[in-house]
Amino acid sequence: MSSNPKSKKQIIFQEAAELFRDKGYPATSMRDLAERVGLKPSSFYSHIKSKEEILQKICFDSAEKFTIGMKEVCDTEATNKEKLQLLIRLHIKVATEDPTTATVFNDEWRHLSEPHLSNFLALRRDYESHFLKIIEAGISTQEFKQISPSLVLYTIINSLRWLHFANKPTKELSATQIENDLIQLLLQGVEKNVL
Amino acid sequence: MSSNPKSKKQIIFQEAAELFRDKGYPATSMRDLAERVGLKPSSFYSHIKSKEEILQKICFDSAEKFTIGMKEVCDTEATNKEKLQLLIRLHIKVATEDPTTATVFNDEWRHLSEPHLSNFLALRRDYESHFLKIIEAGISTQEFKQISPSLVLYTIINSLRWLHFANKPTKELSATQIENDLIQLLLQGVEKNVL
DNA sequence: ATTTTGCGAACGAACAGTCATTCGTATTTT
DNA sequence: AAAATACGAATGACTGTTCGTTCGCAAAAT
Q1: Minimal CB count within 10 Å: which of A103, A113, A145, A178?
Q2: Domain encompassing residue B80
């Protein structure tokens, strides 16, 4: 059964996430993973069902975080501007809390097999449509500029995609510093306002 | 000799870029590619040297576009704000002119083998450092807000990464429309200025 | 004019290697 | 004793690539 400090299953998922991030899912072999975990390839079929089960867990666990986060945002009474701020914070939180799974979630979902691929895409579509509604609402209340909502959506979502590479920049920047700077950047742009 | 309308080599590169975009480099087999081109797997070794040669060409051709574009921007006499605008336009141009190779350039370069991987990363580092200098200069002249330059760099670069998925959104938006909206969005943010 | 030579393009077959996974069995843990 | 965990060996499928060969066409030689 699950050994105490961290179950072997958890270790497998974590090491796998790192490998998937670094090499991608198809280029990561079970032998690579075995070596990392300190097991022979045949051995972790006592713990997991298949290679894809790992990918599925990572993808859908991350997806759930976004789904839950979106629900919370939608349930609050807040201006659209505030909701957008909360969503940006949500993306930053997910990306920084668990950077490896966030990467896999972002880039490796396409290697899911059916029907999981369709299920995942449905979750994603749902999330994006909620996101879109907030942007559209913000435009109609004149909180936001009149810019194509889907263009705004994709720009914002993707602008946060570098966060989970975590190693390169911003070692010295605090998390809240990053949050605040990013929100200012996305809401008001790089250009300095002339007041 | 090179048959006229499009040489077979060109066809191979183009079909390969599409497959690499859709399935990723490691998940794309030479047999997949063969079927697309209408050749048997063994046959295109008359045209190309190896699978990786295709990846190399795509990556370094795209890299060259950015390098050349950056040189042009650096050579102009312009304010840092104007230079940043030009760089954003450059990214949009590359991403929309040849969306498939742009995707490969963005996501599949890590599968390059040495020494090509190091060469590629050197080009990239060089590009980014020029980009950073412009942002830093803009901050010191007070054209830009005082936000961590590398944070601005990665946000901008990545915010344009969805463009090459081309299919999903913005079918009806013209290219110049997209350009203008994006520049406004990145320079001045989503929020509507209260004037 | 006819034959010979050369060559790029395409092929089927086969290569050695790797892939994820399964099975039977041993070892360890409970 | 029972259950969970680990292993070596083997599986069939797939990987990129090479080999020897063939076909059609163009240039060269007769």
Answers
A1: A113
A2: 52-188
Task: Identify, with chain letter, the residue nearest to nucleotide D17 (CA–C1').
Answer: B42
> For A32-46, what is each residue's pLDDT tens digit?
999 999 999 999 899
**Contact (CB<8Å) A145/B182:** no
**SS3 for A191?**
strand
Tens digit of pLDDT for each residue in A139-168? 999 999 999 999 999 999 988 888 877 555
Segment B82-89 long-range contacts (CB within 8 Å, at least 24 positions apart): B83/B134, B83/B138, B84/A190, B84/B134, B84/B135, B84/B138, B84/B144, B84/B156, B84/B187, B85/B183, B85/B187, B87/B131, B87/B134, B87/B156, B88/B156, B88/B160, B88/B179, B88/B182, B88/B183, B88/B186, B89/B179, B89/B183
Q: How many domains does chain B have?
A: 2
Q: Is the pTM of this model over 0.70?
A: yes
Asked if the structure places residue A55 within a domain, the reply is yes
Same domain, B84 and B176: yes
Same domain assignment for residues A25 and A93: no
Contact at CB, A169 and B154, closer than 8 angstroms: yes
> Based on the domain organization, do B58 and B42 belong to the same domain?
no
